[in-house]
């Protein structure tokens, strides 16, 4: 009988393989439909479909399966990078090619927007979720299943280490390893004591976890695996909105579709960075917020409000807050903590 780990591994691999194949088939089929409408030839339709089948088969045999074997043997996980290159990039290229073919022929038959694009991005999100949730168990409770709540259980005066040393010196002289001399303290420790006293609160708050019971106990529950799903979708919403703008008729049949999909693909490359990497914040600003801000301002100036102003404000505040807290706060004028 198969163990739970084997079943989970099989489910993950089947889901990722489906996310690799289905978007390519869907996008290529829509592209084949456009070619069939323009040329009125069933042969062209089936040639495009056959090309998609050949591409998926070759990628699976020569890239995906060897890569999976390498990952299982070495415990490395470059799956997201391979998926972005093998599936997302070809899908974006076919979508752009469909727009170019229709514009050159003077035919606007298929906007080629909602279902294929949503399927491509949803598959990307699924692959990202699988890679993040893979180390976690699918059964049982999470690590932080119950959300701890702050309760003031004890209040006492917080004593710094230097005050204790000073008290010990008054009691009976300084020990050989103590900086206290005859009931006094050296200048270094006195400065540290004064600085610590000014920054330390007079009370200490101890956090204890609650065990709630009753019919509404689920309201107080925090499940980290559910938080992972929510955070992953929020991580991709800005890119999803940018690609959605490219699907509108005014933008899709114009030259602006090229830079939009190029910038969207560059922002997708952030997925290869691990969630806890310090490079994630700077890469998000450089590959998403700043380029998307410039692109959205240009789109609003050319086509009107095809994109919500909310996303423009999001890009502005994200980029400005990153620059302020990372660079501006290091200036001498803003480096003093006593100002605010």
Automatic annotation (TrEMBL):
Spans through the membrane: 12-32, 44-67, 79-99, 111-130, 250-273, 293-326
Originating species: Sinocyclocheilus rhinocerous
Disordered: annotated span: 165-196
Source organism, top-level taxon: Eukaryota
Alphabetical list of InterPro entries matching this protein: Uncharacterised_FAM23-like_TM (IPR020394)
UniProt name for this protein: Transmembrane protein 236-like
Keyword vocabulary terms for this entry: Membrane, Transmembrane, Transmembrane helix
PANTHER family on file: TRANSMEMBRANE PROTEIN 236 (PTHR31453:SF2)
